[in-house]
């Protein structure tokens, strides 16, 4: 028995979504529950995969099953494909298993040619019918040329506009049958002019080409980007739905519409939608004419409207979710052409979930499982005013690295950002790339735009942590930092010019677009409380400042999983002392410089412990290479030389000596503490003294510091640094005459650490996976440079996702699994977390749940996303 590639709508149901795609499965389901659906057939997603395997060809076996499907459709509908007396016309539509609105292609009115058109008109002498036939014909030629043969729509739009101008009319509906007949001829001539061949007149050839076009559209640039953004695997393929046409453009007794059973923007329970008389589906979606609100349909077509209201109730009660429907009315009779769970804003998703539980449609667990965690991002950041955004055209696009909306005057340096912001200006910081010393400017800016760098570049990571909008890696910008200007899309932007950036989409706009503050509605708290009931992993935050920590606590963080101490060294009053330490010639000089920083570090840690109110705090010791802390500007170098009583040349040669060929794999992390144990001593004193003071002030809290040694690759290395930490900590605790427990653990971010985790676990109280570095070291990619070539990898289907944004479960995940399986038997008390950027990515959080991690840690504004994703993972596969 050969494989079944084609299913009639009457042979499927909603459970066959993977095979029939969402649209095909739902059409079959609607027929099953007795709704008026034109009876057609679905070509499966497996046929799409086969089409690509066969070198982008539809094989004979699939085509013969398609023709059998056509024969069935003819029998059911009493019309024949390509017949001159009673022709059957069809629509050909895509339908992947995950909804991808507007990403793939549709062809309507297929089966028309000159002979069929003449035969249809001959059978019905009504002049209005003649107009309808020519209207359908010119639409088909335009759509087929555009979608199937890739002749741009613009050529045909131009001809329509010229015709309307010549006839002195404003709308397509005002053109006569004769006008449309002329247009159809002009369209065919344009087709031949563009492609050098006649428009295909054989309906079977038209059908085959249209099916191929839908399969091909699975791999179009729009669809590829959408899939990457929405975690839809390329291997799924799309189904194709072929169904008899019903005509909303037949006459004034006909029309077409799109509707939602609830408001997709707010979630309010009321029918929302639009309807157009004498029109076809694409007119509503494409906004060719302004449609009327759905309620007005009641006056025009009272019977069809009454039936439609019943269908809405029936579908929502059947699917237990908000429905998005497309329908057509032909001669006052209603036909349903599509239904699906409607796309919605995050605000609407929360309201609908809570309402569906209240209405008895969903359990709390089902409500938690139905919300896309990624959408919550938009609730937590300022957004552009929707109407203003719609009216604006982007001039460029980078990576949407940190969500939200920002507009302001362009500045090119961190110092300018601070200075301008201090005098009340809203600024957007534009840099080739950012570095840790830009942190003050990044804090002062409304948003950050970089030319280089990917989703885990410095700018992206820090911006997400601060909840600041960031667009990174816009390589189209021609930057002239020296003269404080850049060029994009042929337009020159100077310091002080206005710009708007969208950190969700990555779009860049000239001028200012109005923004509105994010609103967190009451339903947010309800859904989060439900999520917390189900999840089995803790959620911590990556935070370096009390403000970040406080924000994360408000958003539900249960501790700090990563405090990067180096960010604290860049404050004006400390950087001088730290540079003094770098320039020191002896241990005594180094210790003297570090003693100046100690009270500041201690103060920082006290503030963090206070903000966390007794929740765990993991403090990572110094990680970046020392060259990141030294000055680069002549003026600053001269200042440092004067402060040290050394020559400018000496300081310059010292700085030169710190530079490394590959700093990410150079003198950093625990290697600094091995070389300069006094750094680890100072940081340990600060951590322990702060903990003692806060514990005294709050006897009811349990302050138990977690000290994390970064970049360990060898047990002896960890032991070396741990010995310094333990000796210093124990001495401090003894001197204070108090009891204080603390832990010393390590980051697993070098593959060798994962491979030797059984040895490392003997001396570590905890493991924390630093997946940014672990990904970088496992792939051998520099995370700051990978953005330059990853697009080619996406296009060649080598990668479907950025491994820095979505955890690589096959490679990096295997190392994590190995580290846990090696470490836990040696040290059963070992607790394990993740603190790379992946800690806030829903699919990565699900993977961490599967591995058995104790917690995930992410930037403050991603905490709700991680809470929801962890709950969904536990609902889907609860741990024993």
What's a quick, concise take on this entry?
With 880 residues, the protein is an alpha/beta fold.
Textual characterization of the structure:
There is one protein chain. By secondary structure, the protein is α/β, with parallel strands linked by helices. Strands 14-24-23-16-17-18-19-15 form an 8-stranded mixed β-sheet. Strand 26 (538-542), helix 20 (546-554) and strand 27 form a beta-alpha-beta unit. Helix 20 packs parallel to helix 22 (587-612). It starts with 5 loop residues before the first strand and ends with a helix.
List keywords for this structure.
880 residues, elongated, alpha/beta, 17% strand, 46% helix, 34 helices, 8-stranded mixed beta sheet, single chain, 8-stranded parallel barrel
Average pLDDT metric: 92
First and last CA, distance: 43 Å
Characterize the overall form. Answer: elongated
- Name the strands of the widest sheet in spatial order: 14-24-23-16-17-18-19-15
Category from helices, strands and their pairing? alpha/beta
